Amino acid sequence: MQGFAVFDLIIISITLILGLKGLFRGLIKEVFGIIGIIGAIFVASRISKETGELLAPVLVLENEATIKLIGFVVALVGVWIIVYSAGIVVSKIFSASGLGVIDRFFGFIFGATKIFLIFSVIAYALYQVESFRKVINEKFATSAVMPHLISVGSHIIKLDTDSLANSFNKAIDTVKESPIVKDATSNIQENVNSTVNGAQEVIQEEIIKQVEEKIEESTNMSSEEIDAMKEKLKNIANKPEENQ
């Protein structure tokens, strides 16, 4: 019980502490900051080539990929600075009009909500994994915050795990039915069969060789025994003659 209370306290504390950033920055700066990042990526991805071509003669660039990368980075930073500067100007105008307190209050709400939504997405994504789901159900069964994180996260992202599993299985089946995979499997099977047959032949030859050696040893021993028996018979046959 204490562990779960600590978890709830940690999540709430982090949310409130990071929400203070929005309190100091204000709603307008927070919103313009997010718009600046998203907008900068959106714009930079579309004008990166043109921007890079303008900078190529100055930086003496020839590689097309490098030109496009430099163009993207410069455009990204440029657009973000423009949007962020606009946010600062609007925020100062807002403060000058006597609405600075409202701006900061909603900035705190916006900042805390943003952090809580991030936690919600992470919690819901982990909850879709079977192993994590069991741990969450067991360890956080009495948590007051976890159910809300999962519930909010489910409205932000929709993860159809069954559909993902079916798509994954279809992809595997498609790969299995691929001619390249079939040929590779056939070649591997042929190599395995060839190796097994070769090993069997070697083993059979070794067994036959050992059997032949044993037979030869047995034959040699029988000959010696036969010779010894002949000597004994000769001795027995010679004894009556000596007695006469």
Automatic annotation (TrEMBL):
Lipid bilayer topology: Multi-pass membrane protein
Keywords: Membrane, Transmembrane, Transmembrane helix
Pfam entry (one): Colicin_V
Record GO biological process: toxin biosynthetic process
InterPro entries: Colicin-V_CvpA, CvpA-like
Subcellular location: Membrane
CC annotations in GO: membrane
Protein name according to UniProt: Colicin V synthesis protein
Source taxonomy: Bacteria, Pseudomonadati, Campylobacterota, Epsilonproteobacteria, Campylobacterales
